[in-house]
Specification:
The chain is mostly helical. It is about 80% helix and about 0% strand. α4 packs across α6.
Length: about 130
């Protein structure tokens, strides 16, 4: 991975960490619906035009659109947070969790250089996701 791409990923990680922190703060304040709206807006803001499209296509195409394992990991983190918010609202989060898990499985199946954080998140997500 080139220096510019690594810098971009690091900035994206920082921005997503801030979004997740804000969303969880809103959830803890009793506004899980508002937190979900923030996550949806952040997806478009952080991933550009590909953000909304990723939700509409199959897993392989989604991974291709996101184009980088780290971007897929960050997108899956947003999905995982959304699933937590769905749980807080009494909604069925299974589909969201399965989608996040399947994205991570696809990235790992493709191989290549993957960060320890990405692999750790994928293992944790497997444990939180009901079997299909």
């Amino acid at each position: 991975m080139g220096v510019h791409q690594r810098d971009y990923i690091l900035r994206l990680i920082e921005r997503i960490a801030a979004v997740l922190a804000r969303a969880m703060r809103r959830k803890n304040e009793g506004d899980a619906a508002g937190a979900r709206a923030d996550l949806a807006h952040a997806t478009t803001d952080l991933f550009g035009p590909a953000g909304p499209m990723v939700a509409l296509v199959d897993v392989r195409t989604a991974v291709n659109l996101l184009s980088d394992p780290e971007r897929v990991w960050l997108y899956a983190r947003l999905l995982d947070a959304d699933a937590e918010l769905q749980d807080a609202l009494g909604l069925d989060s299974r589909g969201t969790r399965v989608r996040a898990r399947d994205l991570m499985r696809e990235v790992i199946a493709r191989g290549g250089e993957l960060s320890d954080a990405l692999r750790t998140f994928a293992r944790e997500l497997e444990g939180r996701t009901p079997p299909t």
